[in-house]
Amino acid sequence: MHRSPGWRIWSVWVLLCCIGVGSAQAATPKTVLVLGDSLSAAHNIPVEAGWVHLLDTRLGKMVPEWRAVNASISGETSLSGRNRLPALLQKYRPHVLVIELGANDGLRGLPLTALRDNLDAMIVVAQKSHARVLLVGIELPVNYGSRYRDGLRAVYADLAAKRKLALVPFLLKGVAMDPALMQNDGLHPVAAAEPTVLETVWEGLRPLLEPPHSPRS
């Protein structure tokens, strides 16, 4: 059957369009959204040195590619994070949400019941949006007393068990007790400590970046 030159041109155009669409889809990275406070907002250090930026660099080298979006704000509490989260989920539609909140609640001595409720509400709304959740815990200085400090640890552990979440028990593991790795305020890491913080988060995050296992037939 004879086909006109116009038919060939149309066929090539359709093929190029299909290739272009496929390439665009393949080039769109999945998103890890980080919702945290100053510990994730690179407080008093260059943004490029912060663990979230280091994470974004690592994710960008993966195949398929991921990216990290840092929605962390210094001074963020669990309540303000809870209020901001729905709009962030709608805007970025993350595949994974990292929640690193609670330090400012604890430093202000706010009720742990309120912290638990706020974190739980964030987890629920994130899971309803089909995002996997990594919950990142924090510790308080010893002068806050063992009862409050133990209660804070329990908030993260209990929620992780209740909602079947990945959990990083302490963001500053291997950092907080080393004065050389902490700023003068004793609360925030220096830039040289941020790679260690990233490795702590990565341990809990990495499994969430893998495709879900397909059910066995």
Structure description:
This protein has helices spanning 5-27, 51-59, 78-92, 103-107, 112-128, 146-163, 194-205; strands at 30-36, 66-70, 96-100, 132-136, 166-168. It is an alpha/beta fold and 217 residues long. A 5-stranded parallel β-sheet has the order 2-1-3-4-5, sandwiched between helices. Helix 2 crosses helix 7 and helix 5 packs parallel to helix 6. The chain starts with a helix and ends in a 12-residue tail after the last helix.
Fold topology:
Elements lengths: L4 H23 L2 E7 L14 H9 L6 E5 L7 H15 L3 E5 L2 H5 L4 H17 L3 E5 L9 H18 L2 E3 L25 H12 L12
Helix pairs in contact: 2-7, 3-5, 5-6
Oligomer: single chain
Determine the mean pLDDT: 90
Q: What does the radius of gyration come to? A: 22 Å
Helix content bin: 40-55%
Task: Name the helix and strand elements from N-terminus to C-terminus, one letter apiece.
Answer: HEHEHEHHEHEH
% residues in beta strands: 5-15%
Q: Separation of termini?
A: 46 Å
Brief sketch in words of this structure:
The longest helix has 23 residues, at 5-27.
What keyword list fits this structure?
single chain; 217 residues; alpha/beta; five-stranded parallel beta sheet; 7 helices; globular
